[in-house]
Amino acid sequence: xxxxxxxxxxxxxxxxxxxxxxxxxxxxxxxxxxxxxxxxxxxxxxxxxxxxxxxxxxxxxxxxxxxxxxxxxxxxxxxxxxxxxxxxxxxxxxxxxxxxxxxxxxxxxxxxxxxxxxxxxxxxxxxxxxxxxxxxxxxxxxxxxxxxxxxxxxxxxxxxxxxxxxxxxxxxxxxxxxxxxxxxxxxxxxxxxxxxxxxxxxxxxxxxxxxxxxxxxxxxxxxxxxxxxxxxxxxxxxxxxxxxxxxxxxxxxxxxxxxxxxxxxxxxxxxxxxxxxxxxxxxxxxxxxxxxxxxxxxxxxxxxxxxxxxxxxxxxxxxxxxxxxxxxxxxxxxxxx
Length: 337
What we know:
The chain is of the alpha/beta class. The protein folds into two domains: 25-234, Spore Coat Polysaccharide Biosynthesis Protein SpsA, Chain A, CATH 3.90.550.10; 258-335. The chain has helices at residues 3-28, 46-54, 74-84, 98-108, 127-137, 171-176, 190-196, 207-218, 244-261, 263-286, 292-305, 309-312, 314-335; strands spanning 33-39, 61-68, 88-93, 113-116, 122-123, 141-151, 157-161, 187-189, 222-234. Strands 1, 2, 3, 4, 5, 6, 7, 8 and 9 form a nine-stranded mixed beta sheet that branches. β6 (141-151) and β7 (157-161) form a beta hairpin. α10 (263-286) runs antiparallel to α11 (292-305) and α10 runs parallel beside α13. The radius of gyration is 23 Å and the shape is globular. InterPro entries: Glyco_trans_2-like, Nucleotide-diphossugar_trans. Residues 34-195 form the Glycosyltransferase 2-like domain.
């Protein structure tokens, strides 16, 4: 064989070898991060969500989708993705709820770090790589999160982002509100689940806050966020009026669970936590065209629980109060012909 042909053949073999080695690393080796996506009747959004996970700049991942008894084409769409991308794995189960689905995903995950993504949310391309850097720089960090950018149910940008604190978080802050906004921004060391367990499957509301509170009081792992947007979160007013009492009952269950772990801490902060929850419900009620009466009710309970919240957080409190006061005037003006 002429020398030039030999060189060309060796180059081809080297290139093919590199390609096969890369595929083996990406497809066959242990992933750096396991992505868990619980899915229930999400045929309209799951494809875009999967694409945002698959197109991460960090390629050494596995994507575990737990279909929670969907009755639409969600599982078929995921199966199509799995045939095209070996990193995608589909597990199907009867409908058991999101906490059961997430816990099953945790049990199936192979990576030392686990990320969660809801089936209608989207990641920015460098989300996982950024969180991985955050972990490497902070060995005491158990859960990393970031800010979210809100979009409406159609995926349109609302120009609003989360504003809760991301640093200096203490257990009582988890009683006040959920600073992470959504589990779609969570990236968690597997060791955290080994230390404190998974999601409480008996809770139907605030199961994410309960997990974070439990981690912070039962272990030495830290919760800290990044002051940048890495998630596009799909917010919807659908069902906001469905059951405020259900949301409050769920929050009461959270407080009961927290009281089991840290009774003195809960006793010291329960009044402020109650006031903030009532203000939160009032703000949600104001988003409803028929929610004025509920908003008044919850703001009254807010001040009854802890009137000092008006001075501790004047901006958010008085903006909510202003909404309660101004809403009936706006409503009256719309009725004038």
